């Protein structure tokens, strides 16, 4: 079955460490996204990519970095510069373009906790 | 993107019909109205989309009045498993701007 795989499901990070969250899709989708969700809040966009080797900052990109070397992969690195990284991180993809608003497929998320 | 306003939370008993209204006063001509559902610790999933009048699928119905300044998601005979957060989004079907998810409406279904 096609879908988006996020790993790990749970991640613990010590303060000052960088960590990388994995997102892989086998849907042949062009666009991929990273959202952050805090308790009781909506989703906030971190980064998105419409094609390989290109990506754009979202509303809260500071302290995060991404790469898009392959169409099916869009890893997110949470750097030590991110002051409050504890959150639920969601990866999504769409077939083409970023406004394909009924075609968003989400992964099951990674819950990151700073210890 | 058009701004949307929806209730923060709603409670319902099992078996009742639930209607969640979303206001979008500045909706544009090319905008569609889309609803997503999110269960705890999962990503949102698409429920229904419409442009005007009424749309129905196996999960829900979407009612959109003629002026399109609001819309109502209707869930028939809810069960405990319908407890989730419901997001209303408005935007072009194939625009160039990623979706903006607000806080949504937290629906709690009570036995």
Task: Give structural notes.
The complex is a heterodimer of chains A (115) and B (111). Chain A is mainly beta and 115 residues long. Chain A has no helices and eleven strands. In chain A, a hairpin with a 2-residue loop joins strand 5 (43-51) and strand 6. The N and C termini of chain A lie far apart (35 Å). In chain A, the strands form two sheets. In chain A, strands 2, 4, 5, 6, 9, 10 and 11 form a seven-stranded mixed β-sheet that branches. The model of chain B has no long low-confidence stretch (mean pLDDT 92). In chain B, the strands form two sheets. A five-stranded mixed β-sheet of chain B has the order 1-9-8-3-4, with no helix packed on it. A four-stranded antiparallel β-sheet of chain B has the order 2-7-6-5, with no helix packed on it. In chain B, 0% of the residues lie in helices and 49% in strands. Chain B has 111 residues and is an all-beta fold. Chain B has no helices and nine strands.
Q: How many DSSP helices of chain A? A: 0
Please estimate the helix content of chain B: under 10%
Query: Helical stretch count of chain B?
Result: 0
- Name the overall outline of chain A: globular
Strand content of chain B: over 45%
How is the quaternary structure best described? heterodimer
Poorly predicted runs of chain A: none
Biggest beta sheet attributes of chain B = 5 strands, mixed
Helix content of chain A: under 10%
Defining key terms:
heterodimer; A: 115 residues; mainly beta; 7-stranded mixed β-sheet; 4-stranded antiparallel β-sheet; 11 strands; 0% helix; 49% strand; globular; B: 111 residues; 5-stranded mixed β-sheet; 9 strands
What is the gist of this entry?
The complex is a heterodimer of chains A (115) and B (111). Chain A has 115 residues and is mainly β.
Blueprint of the fold:
The complex is a heterodimer of chains A (115) and B (111).
Chain A: E1 4-7, E2 10-13, E3 19-25, E4 31-37, E5 43-51, E6 54-57, E7 64-66, E8 76-78, E9 87-94, E10 105-106, E11 110-114
Parallel strand pairs in A: 2-11
Antiparallel strand pairs in A: 1-3, 3-8, 4-5, 4-9, 5-6, 7-8, 9-10, 9-11
Chain B: E1 9-13, E2 18-23, E3 31-38, E4 45-50, E5 53-56, E6 61-64, E7 70-75, E8 84-92, E9 105-110
Parallel strand pairs in B: 1-9
Antiparallel strand pairs in B: 2-7, 3-4, 3-8, 5-6, 6-7, 8-9
